Amino acid sequence: VNKVVGLTGGIGSGKSTVAELFAERGVTVVDTDRISHQLTGPNGGAMAAIEAEFGSTVVRKDRALDREAMRGIVFSDPGARVRLEAILHPLIRAESERQLCLAEGPYALLVVPLLFETGHYDALLARVLVVDCSEEVQRHRVMQRNGLDEATVSAIMAAQLPRAERLARADDVIDNNDGLAALTLQVDAKHRYYLANLVADSA
Ligand code: ATP
């Protein structure tokens, strides 16, 4: 049985970048965001349940979720988000576990952007690794990447767990304030640490 390391961090903190570096080192990466997108993409595995719950107005011709229509519903009805998550979460969880079971090597990485906010995966994880950078660096990178203004990015950040709380709940932290070279060195160090300390259970 593989050990699972949960990877989380605020928006734009560098989760995908860090996950890619672990993948380059041969670690299996399971990304809950990617699974969620597949489930709600064309003919995705969640679409039948979503259509039954919200009607055909949220289903596009290619049988993908109409994200804009769904956003409209969730915006005017907060309960709709809960119902959507009640459909998606068990499916994301099942597919994550399926992929983790196939993983080779002593440990695998599970990327969960809202890991602490939802608490859904706590029992599955041997360690929680947080990617961290200052809020200033974070804001700057998200504004650049998404072409968003500062107020919009600040609003998204305010809806997530505060940085200090995320750090307090981490087992391990990667500092992503500097460039890719510094980041790579830290991923190497964490990878070595996990290889040495996360021993697969027998059975
Ligand atoms: P999201 O929460 O939106 O999924 P994320 O946490 O996965 O984001 P990334 O997409 O990895 O974050 O990084 C956010 C942006 O910052 C990207 O454009 C990425 O290329 C850039 N970035 C990440 N780390 C660094 C770094 N050390 N130096 C410079 N740019 C970086």
UniProtKB/TrEMBL annotation:
Q: Which InterPro entries match?
A: Depp_CoAkinase (IPR001977), P-loop_NTPase (IPR027417)
Major localisation: cytoplasm
Any one Gene Ontology MF annotation carried by this entry is:
dephospho-CoA kinase activity
Tell me which residues bind ATP: G12, S13, G14, K15, S16, T17
- Tell me any Pfam family this protein matches: CoaE
Family statement: Belongs to the CoaE family.
Name this polypeptide is given: Dephospho-CoA kinase
UniProt organism field: Crenobacter oryzisoli
Gene that this sequence comes from: coaE
